[in-house]
Each structure stands twice: as structure tokens, then as C-alpha cells.
Design brief:
The chain is of the alpha+beta class and about 1000 residues long. About 35% of the residues lie in helices and about 20% in strands. The protein contains 32 helices and 41 strands. It has an eight-stranded mixed β-sheet. The relative contact order is 0.06.
Length: about 1000
């Protein structure tokens, strides 16, 4: 019978619905594999699903489903599931005769409102947890359900999945290899698998059968629908099926699976024996899917439903085949609260009964005490990574430590998050962006080259190789040890290749026998000689490639496989350096630090290291920084750090003594400024710079009235707050003081005047304020504004505005201040200073943030005339301003901008980024405006009526953080994303940024406005 003859039209469905249930409603077609399904919307808002079966459908099968739903309705408590609607005759299964004279069964169920899983974006941890949770709950409700016709042959039953073997020739060689390997693994363990718990389970929580709540911010699974595949089978198959579909479209399917399994376990506790088979069961469900698709392609080319999940199923299968099944098993155990490795407890017990000394391991070194060497991300021994990469320097430091501690062995590193594996070659793209291997799984012993290393107990050689990859890591030996109840392994890295290779796989080394000798410096392509010693309860099938360093998200599993070597030695000083949580820091800070200090992000981050455009937290996670325009030439730029350190070691005093540094910094700045601006005063912050600028204004003009912009910010001290509308018009503010006069934010996008030619209108506003000051019988002291108003939301001043506004101010004797605290030092790309974009020359320029690359130094540049008037006899003394250390740093920052052509980089990368952001704006109408210059950009999020979208903006910034990208929000309506990264931000960084922005803009919440 052809598909067309089987099909039921909407018209027919409407008729059937009315005849059997006396219900009228709007009918639409839904996808379905076996049944023909229709969604019914009744006027009163109620909704149903009408299911019409194919001819000759087995009534037992339908009876089973309907009884099951009835059972869930009675026993399910709060569990949401479709309810069975009886027909006008009170039957739960009705019958019709179709136009070809065939009998068809009809059922009506209630509709569960919400979204289909496959349409939900993103599918994050909490959502996946709730999927497991709901599926587990359903299984637990079904524990009491029985039906005599429940057991039957079924292709989608994982337990019966080996039927796929006879179709293996449908696949090409690569695909065949993957499928055969899974089939073989499944078959090998079939007898064990058959003993697992069984019950009736839903068996089909696939991505089109799961309903998710409409809450876009924290969606949860409401229910599984379509009970047509429910079957009596191993319970673990139900978990496997829900998992197999929900891990599609994730870079790391194993990591994606864990919350689902955790959720399932929370409502239906899984057994350890079941978890052993989960990896295979997931694989076999996918094998069934791809086999069914391959068969269907031939049979029913018109039924698209059958082909829907083929592509993502293959993607997962391919990735799944590369995951160690053992590692997956241990991960599942950890997710369910068991010890990740089943032998962990046994090892702990064994280790507590057996003592080993360091001199057993190193018989030639008669030392049993440890000097702990901290090589964690925040280690001061490491210091700047450039220093650390200078191996001679590190060797010298280490040898010095050894001399100072002659009776100790220098060692450490277990579970230490280390910074030097952070190069791109250690990166992988996980479910939350780039991930680096950072967690060290063994202990490093920093002992002399050629030191003999002995076996602590009898062991069989399972690996003896020259461990040369991209780099030379010396010889590697792994021994297998057998105790009465379990086996474990010890790993020895960085041995001399020659001595390591004397061992042959299968050799037995007796306790106290020599394994090998430590390699010399040259054999160990990085770092001075040291033994990497690691304990492993399993080799995860990767005997030679077992990792010595782990990804952070695998830590909890790997630390159960790679146990603490100090369990053997029980030596003080060798304790693990596992990074602690931030709770204590947060608690103390809340109690004892200023109450109005805020913390970024709902889950605050502790940053312990900066490197260029990246910040690194204590776990070694690397964040791309698009926020910090203070770290102008890059976080912890080596030459800037060095300049500060070197000068600090010599002298730091106030500017009353002569010193080259202050002059040199003045020269460097003057070189960048217009000729008129050639006198400098050095201060310690942007605030101080603006305070001083206003003092200069008062001294030079005799006036104290200042005109400033709405939402402008100029600093945190009294005078600065008085001219900062951002503060006095914001939370806790009391409005403009008597002597401050505010013009509307000159925003051509959403400001008082909009469009291309708004300069004159905003200049009129300046003139209005001038007039107002005059009306009060006073004169104008100054006009202060940023060339791009940062806190205002990266507002570019309208073309022509600044020069006309300056003219108006000067006409009445006022001074013009350009606040370059954010915009200065090359960030604009086209020009070194922001005011230069507008072809004006201010009377005073204030310079802050970027000048010290994080060190507190700021400056005020002014004309000779202003400087002369300010020098009225009162000494200007500033304890720290202009000190030799700060000036050394400032000079190096400015030289670095020139040497590394960072202004050019800001122009090139900034323009590229702006173009790409504009493309995004075309794709996502929520982006109302893209603006800014160089690496000082902003994107504004609005609805179709230009209403600001603060919650979406916040959501975006928080989601970007999930992907390891830091972004900030600002603007009077908090709906602008600001982009102002360190100036070393590269085109690759811009591409990454755009990639993740595009991903997040496509998420459901970003479209909900
Ligand atoms: C434009 C502008 N001016 C002045 C300041 C004050 O600088 P500081 O925080 O260094 O005192 C800031 C700080 O954010 C600023 O953005």
C-alpha cells in the first residue's frame, strides 16, 4: 500500500474527531513514524492530539499504551503525561473505516503545551538534568505497571539491537568499522547485560518526544510524550535513549551526557552494574537509528521523519567511538555519586596499610622530607611566564631552592592547576568554548639527572618507550602492580631514554629493583630534570598516551583514577594543591570590604593571572577579555612589568627630586599631542586628573560652572561626581548640583535628536546651557566631554559637534576639556587621541587608565597659558604622582604602543570587527546599532520600537562568559555591549568573538522581546 493511500488529510481528521468525540477545533498535521497524528486546538484553549493508526494495527499494542497512560495518570502524582480521552461511547480505543475500506484505530489524548526538545536552543546543563530527572521519574512510576501483552519484538529496543548486524553492508568502510566495533562490544558483554534490571519503560525520549517548558531563561523538561515505543526491557536502555538524542549537536557528547544521567539517578537510582553498560547502550541506540535510516532511505524515500536524526546521530557515533568506554563508565559513576573508579576505596584501604618511603623510590637520595614547589597558576616561583619559559632561569631558581633546603626533595604538583599548558596546542573546543588541559595528575620530583628510580613494589612493565611527540619528553615506563583484590599502575616520566628502553614489556621488576634513571636536561625538551610520578587505577586503554594533565571538567573523574601519590608516602609537604572554591573569599569580602563594591557575574570569578588579551582563573581557565582597556598593551605585558620591577628595585620617591623618568614620560606624551598641549602634571588616577583639570579651570577662568553631558562619567571624588550625570542622575544620586549644567546625551541613534545631521541641534543644547549660566549672572568655566561617551554606551559624538561646541564655549571664555581616560593612547585606531577624530584642540586633556597598563598613573596635559594661570603661587604637590616607578611604566606603555604598532592593530582589527558586527546586525534585528572607533566599539540591543533590551543584554554577557569571553554592558538603559579589549586583540580573537556572539544571538531568549 502506498504512503499516499495511508495518509489521512486534515479534512478527514476533522470529521473523525467530530464523529467519535464530538469535538470541533482547528486541526494541523504533526510528524509521526507509525501513527498519523494531528494537533487539535479547541476554541476554549484546550488542546488534544488525535492519533490515527495504520490499517490492521495490533490492538494489543494500542491497549498496552492506553492502559499505561491511564496507569501513569492514576499513579504519577505530579508527573505530567498525556491523558486518555474516551470517545462518545466511553471507549479508550475507537475504530473507523477509511475511504479504502480499511479499519483504522483512533485515539485522542490531551496535548501537553510547551516546546519540542529539538526546537530548544540552548540545551544547557539544567535542562539536560531535568530531562534525566523527568525520565527517571516516569520509570519509577512505571515500576508497578504490568501488561500481559507488553513483551514483543521491537527493532528500537536496545536489548535486541544486534539485528542491525545483518544490515552492515549498507555502510561504507569507515562507518562500518564504527558500527561493527560497537556491535562486537555489545555482543561480548551480552550475558552480563541480560542480567540487568528490567521493567516497562518509555523507551523513546528522543528529541521530538520531549516537551520543554516555555520559560526561556531557565527552561525545564515537562514531559515525555508518545508512549508508542514503551516496552519491557533493561531499564538502562531508557536512560541510554534519552541520552543518545540529547547529546546531539554538542562538541563533547560525554560531558553533555552527564547531567542527564545525574538527573535520571536523582529520581530513579541507577545501579553500578547498569552504568557499566550505559556507554554501549547509548552507542547501540544510535546504531539502530542510523541502520533504520539507511534501510528507510531505500524503502520509504518520502517519509522525512525517518531521516531527521540520521546526520546528528552519525556525528555523535563518530565522536562516541573516540571516547574511552572505560572513561565514560567512570564519568557516569561519578555523575551518580559513586566513586568514579570502582577500586578507589580498595586502593585507599590498601595504601593505608602499606607504607613506602621516598628513599625506596630514590635509593641514592637519602632524603625523606619534601620542599613543596608551587607551580600553580598563581605561583610566584613561576612569576611572569616569559621568565618561566627561560629554562636556565628556572633551573637556577630551583637549584637555589635546593641549596637553601639541602635535606629536602623539591616536589609537588598533584592536582595543581598549572598555567603553562595554556598554549593553543593544549586546547580543545568543548561544550563551553575552548578548554585547556591544566590540572597536573601526578607529582613532580625535582631531583638530579641520572638519579636511579627504583620499584616500590613488584611490577610488570606494560610500557617502556621513548616519549617523543611534538616535544621530547624523555623515556616513559609504566608498571602494573597486582594486589590480592585489584591491579593498579605507576607511571614514570622524563627518564633517560636509554635506561627506560632497557625494560621490555612483560618484564617483571621486583620491589627495590631499578626501573631506570632520570633523564638529563637535553632529553627532556622542556624544563630541568624531574620525575613525573603518577598512580593510575586504570590505563583507560591509553597505556602509552595516558594524560599527565587533565581538563578541568574531567578533574573529578580523573582524580579517582589517578590517586594522590602521597597516599603511598604519607609525607608532609606533598599534599595536593587542588584549588579551593571562592566561597570564603566572597564571604569575607561581603562582610569587610566596602558595601558598594560590586562583583562581576552571578558566579564571580577569581582571576589570578593575566596574559595579553587573556585572564586566567585559579583553575587555569582562560578568558578572552573584551572589557579591559586598562591593560592597554596586554595584561602583564612583559616589558612593562620589567620596567616597573627594575625601577622599583632602584628608587621610588616623589617628584621633588630630579629624575629622567618624569621628563621622559612628559616627552613621550608631548610627542603624541598637538603642539599647544605641552605642559604635563602627573597624578594617580583618572579621577585625580579630572579633579586637577577642574582646579585648573577655576584658577584660569575664575569661574566654577561646568557644562557636561548626560550620562557622562569623570571620576569618583567630590568634584568629579558633581560633573558626572552617570552618578548623580543614577541610583543613589541627587541630581545635578547648582554649578553643573547637563546637555542631553548627543546620541544620534536613540537620543533627543536622531539621524545623520544632529550636530547643530546638540550644539544648540550647549548654547542653551551657556545662556542659562549667564542668566544666573555667572560665567562658564569649562565644557568637559569624552570623544566617545563610554558609560553613555559608546556614544560617538555627531560629526561636527565638537568643534562647534568648543567654539561656543570659547566665545564666552570657557575652557574645553577632553576626557581621554578611556579613549586615549591609540585605541581609536585612526588617531592617537579621541579629540583628534574631530579636528579640535582642547585646552586640557585628561589621561588615565591605559597609561599605566594597570599601574595607577594618570596625567593632565594643558596649554602653557592654562599652566601659567594655575601656577598662582600655591604649590601643587602630589606624593605619588610622577614617581620614577610609575613614569618608567608609563614610558614603556607608550613605547610598546609604538613598537608593536598597536594603534595600527586597533584600526585593522577594530574595523574588521565592526564590519562583522554589522553583518550580525543584519542577521539579528535585536542589534539596533553598531558604533565606535578602533577597539572601542558598542552594540546596542533594542526592539523594533527602539525600546532598550536590558535583560537580553545581560543574558548575552553572562552567556558569553560561559564560553570564556568577558564582555561588559553599559549605557543609561544598560542595553549596550561594550567592546574595548587590550590592544593586542587579534583578528583571530575577533573571529572567535563573532562566532560565539552569533551562537548566542540565535538562542531562544535573545529572540524573546
Ligand atoms: C571617562 C572616565 N573619566 C574618568 C574616570 C575615572 O578614572 P579612575 O577610575 O582612574 O579614577 C573614568 C573611570 O572609569 C572614566 O571612564
Amino acid at each position: 500500500m502506498s504512503y499516499n493511500e495511508l495518509k489521512i488529510s486534515i479534512k478527514q481528521a476533522e470529521k473523525i474527531l467530530f464523529k467519535l468525540f464530538k469535538i470541533k477545533g482547528r486541526v494541523s498535521i504533526l510528524p509521526g513514524e507509525v501513527d498519523f497524528n494531528f494537533r487539535i486546538k479547541v476554541n476554549d484553549g484546550e488542546e488534544f492530539i488525535l492519533k490515527i493508526s495504520r490499517p490492521n494495527e495490533n490492538e494489543d499494542y494500542l491497549d498496552f499504551q492506553q492502559k499505561l497512560l491511564k496507569y501513569v495518570e492514576v499513579m504519577g502524582g505530579n508527573l505530567i503525561a498525556p491523558r486518555v480521552i474516551e470517545d462518545v461511547e466511553g471507549k479508550i480505543i475507537s475504530e473507523i473505516t477509511d475511504e479504502f475500506g480499511k479499519k483504522r484505530k483512533v485515539r485522542l489524548l490531551t496535548w501537553i503545551s510547551g516546546r519540542i526538545w529539538s526546537s530548544v536552543n540552548p540545551q544547557l546543563v539544567n535542562l539536560r538534568f531535568s530531562l534525566g530527572e523527568k525520565c527517571g521519574l516516569l520509570t519509577s512510576v512505571l515500576q508497578g505497571f504490568e501488561h500481559e501483552k507488553a513483551q514483543y519484538e521491537f527493532v528500537w529496543d536496545v536489548a535486541q539491537s544486534l539485528w542491525t548486524k545483518k544490515h552492515i553492508d549498507l555502510f561504507s568502510s569507515e562507518e562500518k568499522e564504527i558500527i561493527v566495533s560497537f556491535q562486537n562490544q555489545f555482543e561480548k558483554r551480552l550475558s552480563d547485560y541480560k542480567k540487568l534490571r528490567k521493567s516497562i519503560v518509555h523507551n523513546d525520549a528522543n528529541d521530538n518526544n520531549v516537551i520543554v517548558s516555555d520559560d526561556l531563561r531557565s527552561p525545564k523538561v515537562k514531559a515525555a510524550i508518545d508512549y508508542g515505543d514503551a516496552i519491557y526491557t533493561q531499564i538502562i536502555n531508557d536512560v541510554a535513549i534519552a541520552t543518545a538524542y540529547a547529546i546531539m549537536n554538542h562538541n563533547d557528547p560525554l560531558a553533555a551526557a552527564l547531567p542527564i544521567i545525574k538527573g535520571y539517578h536523582s529520581t530513579f537510582p541507577l545501579q553500578e552494574a547498569e552504568l557499566k553498560h550505559l556507554y554501549n547502550a547509548i552507542a547501540m541506540r544510535l546504531v539502530i537509528t542510523v541502520t533504520m535510516s539507511a534501510i528507510s532511505k531505500e524503502k520509504e524515500p518520502n517519509n522525512e521523519y525517518l531521516l531527521i536524526s540520521e546526520k546528528p546521530a552519525w556525528e555523535v557515533l563518530k565522536k562516541w567511538s573516540k571516547i574511552s568506554s572505560e572513561f565514560a563508565h567512570f564519568s557516569f559513576r561519578e555523575a551518580c555519586g559513586f566513586k568514579a573508579h570502582p577500586n578507589e576505596e580498595q586502593f585507599l584501604h590498601w595504601a593505608s596499610k602499606n607504607d613506602f618511603s621516598l628513599s625506596d623510590l630514590f635509593p641514592n637520595i637519602n632524603k625523606d622530607e619534601i620542599y613543596p614547589l608551587d607551580l600553580s597558576v598563581s605561583s610566584k616561583v613561576i612569576g611572569h611566564l616569559n621568565n618561566f619559559n627561560d629554562l636556565e632561569l628556572f633551573d637556577y631558581k630551583k637549584n637555589k631552592l635546593q641549596k637553601e633546603n639541602p635535606s629536602k626533595i623539591i616536589a609537588g604538583g598533584y592536582l595543581e592547576a598549572r598555567p603553562f599548558y595554556i598554549s593553543e596546542s593544549y586546547d580543545k573546543i568543548g561544550n563551553s568554548g575552548k578548554e585547556s588541559r591544566t590540572i597536573h595528575l601526578g607529582v613532580d620530583f625535582w631531583i638530579p639527572e641520572n638519579t636511579p628510580v627504583n620499584a616500590l613494589l613488584d611490577g610488570e612493565v606494560v610500557v617502556a618507550v621513548n616519549n617523543a611527540g611534538e616535544k621530547q619528553y624523555g623515556g616513559l615506563v609504566v608498571l602494573k602492580h597486582t594486589t590480592e583484590t585489584f591491579d593498579f599502575y605507576t607511571l614514570y616520566g622524563h627518564l633517560s631514554v636509554e635506561s627506560a628502553l632497557i625494560n621490555k614489556v612483560g618484564d617483571v621488576i621486583k620491589k627495590g629493583g631499578k626501573i631506570a634513571e632520570l633523564g638529563v636536561f637535553a632529553e627532556n625538551g622542556y624544563w630541568p630534570p624531574h620525575l613525573h610520578f603518577q598512580i593510575m587505577l586504570s590505563t583507560l586503554g591509553e597505556v602509552e598516551d595516558f594524560p599527565g594533565v587533565a581538563y578541568f571538567n574531567q578533574l573529578n573523574v580523573l582524580k579517582s583514577i589517578c590517586l594522590d601519590p602521597n597516599l603511598l608516602f604519607k609525607t608532609e609537604g606533598l599534599q595536593s594543591n587542588e584549588s579551593l572554591s571562592n566561597d570564603e573569599l566572597i564571604h569575607y569580602r561581603k562582610k569587610h570590604l566596602g558595601k558598594s563594591l560590586s562583583l562581576q557575574y552571578k558566579v564571580p570569578i577569581k582571576m589570578v593571572r593575566g596574559a595579553g588579551q587573556y585572564l586566567i582563573d585559579q583553575f587555569g581557565r582562560k578568558y578572552l577579555d573584551t572589557v579591559n582597556n586598562v591593560a592597554h598593551v596586554g595584561h602583564e605585558h612583559y616589558s612593562v612589568v620589567k620596567a616597573g620591577q627594575e625601577q622599583m628595585a632602584l628608587i621610588n620617591t616623589n617628584s621633588r627630586y630630579l629624575h629622567e623618568n618624569i621628563n621622559e614620560l612628559a616627552k613621550e606624551l608631548i610627542e603624541t599631542l598637538p603642539l599647544e598641549l605641552n605642559v604635563l602634571h602627573f597624578v594617580n588616577s583618572g579621577t585625580e586628573a579630572n579633579e586637577l583639570a577642574i582646579r585648573m579651570v577655576k584658577a584660569a577662568t575664575g569661574e566654577r560652572d561646568v557644562i557636561a553631558s548626560e550620562v557622562g562619567y569623570h571620576g569618583n571624588a567630590n568634584m568629579c561626581i558633581d560633573i558626572s550625570s552617570y552618578k548623580f542622575d543614577g541610583k543613589g544620586g541627587k541630581g545635578a548640583p547648582e554649578h553643573t549644567h547637563i546637555i542631553p546625551l548627543p546620541d544620534s541613534f536613540r537620543g533627543k535628536y536622531r539621524g545623520d545631521d544632529t550636530a547643530d541641534r546638540y550644539v544648540e543644547e550647549v548654547q542653551n546651557q551657556i545662556n542659562l549660566v549667564h542668566e544666573k549672572g555667572r560665567g562658564v568655566g569649562a565644557f568637559i566631554i569624552e570623544p566617545i561617551i563610554s558609560c553613555g554606551g559608546q556614544i560617538e559624538l555627531p560629526k561636527g559637534f565638537l568643534s562647534k561646541a568648543y567654539n561656543a564655549i570659547r566665545k564666552v571664555g570657557g575652557l574645553c576639556i577632553s576626557d581621554e581616560v578611556q579613549t586615549g593612547c591609540g585605541r581609536m585606531g585612526k588617531t592617537f587621541w579621541g579629540f583628534q577624530l574631530h579636528n579640535v584642540v582642547p585646552d586640557i586633556v585628561t589621561i588615565g587608565k591605559p597609561l599605566g597598563n594597570g599601574h595607577p598613573i594618570a596625567a593632565v596635559a594643558c596649554t602653557q597659558e592654562v599652566a601659567d594661570k594655575f601656577a598662582n603661587g600655591m604649590e601643587y604637590f602630589n606624593t605619588f604622582g610622577g614617581n620614577p616607578v610609575s613614569c618608567a611604566i608609563g614610558v614603556e606603555v607608550l613605547k610598546t604602543v609604538k613598537r608593536e604598532k598597536l594603534q595600527e592593530n586597533a584600526l585593522k582589527v577594530g574595523e574588521y570587527l565592526k564590519e562583522e558586527l554589522k553583518k550580525l546586525a543584519n542577521e539579528f534585528p535585536i542589534i539596533g546599532d553598531v558604533r565606535g572607533q578602533g577597539l572601542f566599539l558598542g552594540i546596542e540591543l533594542v526592539d523594533a520600537n527602539l525600546n532598550p533590551l536590558e535583560t537580553q543584554t545581560n543574558y548575552l554577557a553572562n552567556r558569553m562568559k560561559d564560553y570564556g569571553i568577558l564582555m561588559s554592558t553599559d549605557g543609561p538603559d544598560h542595553n549596550v555591549i561594550k567592546i574595548k579589549p587590550p590592544m593586542v586583540f587579534s583578528k583571530d580573537n575577533a573571529e572567535d568573538l563573532i562566532f560565539y556572539l552569533r551562537k548566542i544571538f540565535a538562542e531562544d531568549f535573545m529572540k524573546s522581546y
